[in-house]
Amino acid sequence: QVPLLETGGGSGQAGGSLRLSCANFGYLDRSYCMGWFRHAPGKQREALASIDGAGIIIVADSVAGRVTISYDNATNTLRLQMDTLTPEDTAKYYCAVGFGVESLLRCTTVTPDILAEALNTWGQGTLVTVSS
Prior knowledge:
- By secondary structure, this protein is mostly beta strands.
- The chain has helices at residues 101-106, 112-117, and strands spanning 5-7, 10-13, 18-23, 32-39, 46-52, 57-59, 67-72, 77-82, 91-99, 121-122, 126-131.
- The protein is built from 2 helices and 11 strands; from the N terminus they run E-E-E-E-E-E-E-E-E-H-H-E-E.
């Protein structure tokens, strides 16, 4: 499995929005779990949202109401939309995917370490910087 590729990072202003994309999934059936994480300097890794092959979505309470995760079957692209940005959203953002029934069955939480166990292919991350 080749690494995933995140795009869409960069600099933005507080109050704005970002839209990240993730590709290079290869062939997918319905047995998968996908997630978006972020890691800010000096902070612990945070899982933002997950989506599985059944279309079940879980969003972390910390970003609920501001984040939308989606998977576009037509283009095989995972997306993350985040609105009302603040400087606290400055971080490196990663997408990840896990394949197979085991991943699908574990795709039931956004507790970072537990969700990460469901995922086995990661991107290199894209940096997002939000200024006030």
